[in-house]
From TrEMBL:
Residues covered by the CR-type domain: 132-210
Subunit (UniProt): Homodimer.
Major location (coarse): cytoplasm
InterPro entries in alphabetical order: DnaJ, DnaJ_C, DnaJ_domain, DnaJ_domain_CS, HSP40/DnaJ_pept-bd, HSP_DnaJ_Cys-rich_dom, HSP_DnaJ_Cys-rich_dom_sf, J_dom_sf
Family statement: Belongs to the DnaJ family.
Residues binding Zn(2+) 2: 162, 165, 184, 187
GO biological process, one term: response to heat
Species this chain originates from: Sphingomonas rubra
Protein name: Chaperone protein DnaJ
Domain J: 6-71
Protein residues bound to Zn(2+) 1: 145, 148, 198, 201
Cofactor: Zn(2+)
Amino acid sequence: MSTQVDYYELLECERTADAGTIKTSYRKLAMKYHPDKNAGCKDSESKFKAVSEAYDVLKDPQKRAAYDRFGHAAFQNGGGGGGAQDFGGFSDIFESVFGEFMGGGRGGRPQPRRGADLRYDMEVSLEEAFHGKQTEITIDVSAECDTCHGSGAKPGTQASTCRQCNGHGKVRAQQGFFVVERACPVCNGAGQVITDPCLDCRGEGRVEKTRTLSVTVPPGVDEGTRIRLSGEGEAGPRGSPAGDLYIFLHVRRHGLFEREGTTLFARAPISFTTAALGGSLSIPGLDGTTHEVRIPAGIQSGKQLRQRGAGMPVLQGRGQGDLVIQIEVETPTKLSTRQRELLELFRETETGDECPASQGFFAKLKAAVVG
């Protein structure tokens, strides 16, 4: 097929076609004429090269503009681009589009395989979450081999460049329409081969060890707070960087306080006489001090009293949250004879103004019944 055939005709597209239409048409034709689908057919191979040549020009906005204005003459006599692509050239085009996604260019070296991150779950009390603490943990982890210092090679020897991939760690293979890149099967992507491995780590550069680590729990931590210890995770193979250790904190339930962010909540039952006459309440704080809470006369169940700055400390910040006391008025269930007599006397003197909410409710109820 002559290279002078109009590129738009080759790709079966109108001259006004957008880039997406051109790309779709090219893919369809390339699959149709691909040599793997038409083994031994010279005409199909020629058509495949022609549509690849056309697409190489029309996919580039600058080349397409030049072609629209000057036709094939724009790429003749050193005009640049547009030459017929052979089968290897198509692989280069594919690599230029997908090379970064596939793991880098042909000349790149394999990136060190970083060790895996680890997770450790730690339980703390609410008091420890308030004050913070210094503690130690023991973990089993893959650490750098002391014998070969992480190289994986027997002391006195060293790894050599893999001949299969020339140290790149990756090999490419043509599979039909695509160029597939995968880890080198000889060096497993390392780019190097160890012919005389370390006897202690068997060439891995790491061995299982039990390690004791110091952990600082800062004041103000909450359920799910994560502490990161950089480089304390699994060691990477053959001297590669280690991963990180993430400590997830879990705060135990407290007998008195519930927590919401930096706010502490506590329920305080009081007698109905204290609710009516007023008084005070002593609440022991997590900081070791006792907080005196004033109870106003006539307080109702469900009322919340707030103590500013008596809550949890702000994590990695300044100040503290609040302590919120929710009042629950308790009705007495056991009365002495004298107490009962006094309450009966009190009931005889009631006018209804003492409990306006009750009086209002019964007034509404009576109106509803009459209506």
